[in-house]
Design goal:
alpha+beta; single chain; 186 residues; 19% helix; Inorganic Pyrophosphatase
C-alpha cells in the first residue's frame, strides 16, 4: 500500500505518545454505545461512516486508533478506551495500555489494544487486563464475535493478553508505520 504523508491528517500529525508504549495517544472514531461504524479515511483525514452495524448491537467501549502506527490489516492499530465517559469522535485521549484482544477478522490478524483513559480516576488504577471484571472481557469478546454475523463474516477471538504483550504490539506497529512512511526507526 502506498500512502502519502499528510501533515493535516491526524493519523500522521499526532505522535504515538511521548511515553509510549505505556501511555499512548488514542483518537476516538466510535463512541461507546454507538451502532455506526466510523473510521478515519486514511487519504483525507476525515471521519467517514463505513456502515451501520447490521446486528442490533452497539460498541461496548470507546473505539479508535493509535496515531503513527500501522498493522497487517493496512490500518492504524485499533484501541478500545475504557472510561466512564462516552467520548466524541476525533477526540484525542491519553491512554494507559493495559492489554490486547487478539482476533482474526476475515482470517487476518486484527489486534485491539485495550487501554484506560489516563485522566479518568474511575479506571486509571487498572494496570493490566487481568484486573478487569471477567464479565467485561466476555462482553468485548461477544460483541466482536457477533457484530459481523449478519454480514456473513467470521471473527474469531484468539485470546486476551496482558499489558506487556500489548506494549510490544504498540512498538511493532509504530516501527511498521515508520517503515511504511520511510521514516528513520526510533
Amino acid at each position: 500500500m502506498s500512502l502519502q504523508y499528510d501533515p493535516t491528517n491526524p493519523w500522521h500529525r499526532i505522535p504515538v505518545g511521548e511515553n509510549a508504549p505505556t501511555i499512548v495517544n488514542g483518537i476516538i472514531e466510535i463512541p461507546r454505545g454507538e451502532r455506526a461504524k466510523y473510521e478515519l479515511d486514511k487519504t483525507t483525514g476525515l471521519l467517514k461512516m463505513d456502515r451501520v452495524i447490521y446486528s442490533s448491537m452497539h460498541y461496548p467501549a470507546n473505539y479508535g486508533f493509535i496515531p503513527q502506527t500501522y498493522c497487517d490489516d493496512d490500518d492504524p492499530l485499533d484501541i478500545m478506551v475504557l472510561t466512564q465517559a462516552t467520548i466524541v469522535p476525533m477526540c484525542l485521549v491519553s491512554c494507559k495500555v493495559i492489554g490486547v484482544m487478539r482476533m482474526l477478522d476475515g482470517g487476518e490478524l486484527d489486534d485491539k489494544i485495550i487501554a484506560v483513559a489516563e485522566n479518568d480516576m474511575s479506571v486509571n488504577h487498572y494496570n493490566d487486563i487481568s484486573e478487569l471484571p471477567p464479565h467485561f472481557k466476555l462482553e468485548l469478546q461477544t460483541f466482536f464475535e457477533d457484530y459481523k454475523k449478519l454480514e456473513k463474516k467470521a471473527v474469531v477471538i484468539e485470546e486476551f493478553l496482558g499489558a506487556e504483550t500489548a506494549k510490544e504490539i504498540v512498538v511493532k506497529a509504530a516501527k511498521d508505520y515508520q517503515t511504511l512512511m520511510g521514516i528513520a526507526q526510533f
